[in-house]
Design goal:
alpha/beta, Rossmann fold, 7-stranded mixed β-sheet, 10 helices
């Protein structure tokens, strides 16, 4: 049991707002296709975080038996609360990917999102292979940060970045320390006896309000984007132990930026700002 991630790296609330921003009603079919979800499967997410992926799966595929594990108990508490709000039954528990509390050959699909880069490959893979059924699918997702291509709304952005540059906080140990190129991961999977190894590279565009035909959707995107930035600011300022004055300044700048973006949308002044993730998905069959 640990709270390292939620207290040191990324709060559960920030993780949840970020994932909800990226995996939403408009692009859920793409995510479900990449995850190869269909009804009546037994599915496990390792490193489930706030539970957004698993909750989405159970919501749209109610006959699936869905499990989520995470080492951080704050994440698991949050995931359980969210599933109760949605009135769905997802099986969550605190557990280590190196010691999965499941029988051999239990799952049709075992998947992870942005987990593989944080621990040695052997620790990452052994237990997942064990709990997969013969013929089951292992699905690994991560974001390609090197080729990330966003165009932010620049109003007050320099002032916001200046505040962030003055905040110091402890550096994280081994976070992202095992990142490797996809071809290396696929070679490792082949060495572990997996077959039918496949690779997908997709751009997930989750924020581009000026091209939305629905103003309601555009406003929703801007609000979600603001909530993500707000959650990040609160987490960083709390962890960095900055003064109340600095924190208030940052939150006020973000609020003004958000209000200006909405104002321009309502005036039909197009900015064409956007945010996206380049998603790497590797699938292998046991």
């Amino acid at each position: 049991m640990s709270n390292f991630w939620s207290k040191t790296v990324q709060s559960t609330e920030l993780l949840d707002t970020s994932r909800k921003e990226k995996f939403n009603e408009n692009n859920r079919k793409l995510w479900f296709n990449l995850l190869q979800i269909r009804n009546d499967l037994k599915v496990l997410e390792v490193g489930c975080g706030s539970g957004h992926f698993t909750n989405m799966i159970k919501t749209y595929y109610p006959t699936c038996e869905v499990y989520g594990i995470d080492l951080d108990d704050n994440n698991i508490k949050f995931a359980k609360t969210e599933s109760r709000k949605l009135n769905i039954d997802v099986h969550y528990q605190v557990a280590d990917v190196k010691h999965l509390p499941f029988e051999d050959n239990s799952f049709d699909i075992v998947f992870s999102h942005t987990l593989i880069e944080h621990l040695p490959f052997d620790d990452f893979i052994k237990e997942q292979k064990r709990v997969l059924k013969k013929g089951g699918k292992l699905i690994i997702m991560r974001v390609d940060m090197v080729k990330k291509n966003d165009k932010p709304f620049m109003y007050l952005e320099d002032e916001i970045n200046q505040v962030y540059s003055g905040i110091s906080y402890p550096k994280n140990t081994n976070v992202g320390g095992y990142l490797e190129d996809p071809d290396i991961t696929m070679q490792r999977l082949d060495q572990y006896g997996f077959n039918k190894i496949k690779f997908n590279y997709d751009r997930i565009i989750f924020y581009m309000p000026d091209i939305e035909s629905s103003k309601k959707v555009a406003i929703s995107q801007i609000e979600k984007n603001y909530q993500t930035k707000l959650s990040n600011a609160i987490f960083v300022t709390n962890r960095g132990k900055v003064s109340a004055k600095t924190k208030d300044k940052l939150l006020n700048l973000l609020k003004r930026q958000y209000e200006e973006r909405l104002r321009l949308l309502n005036l039909n002044k197009k900015i064409f700002d956007f945010q996206s993730s380049l998603l790497i998905t590797i699938c292998a069959k046991k």
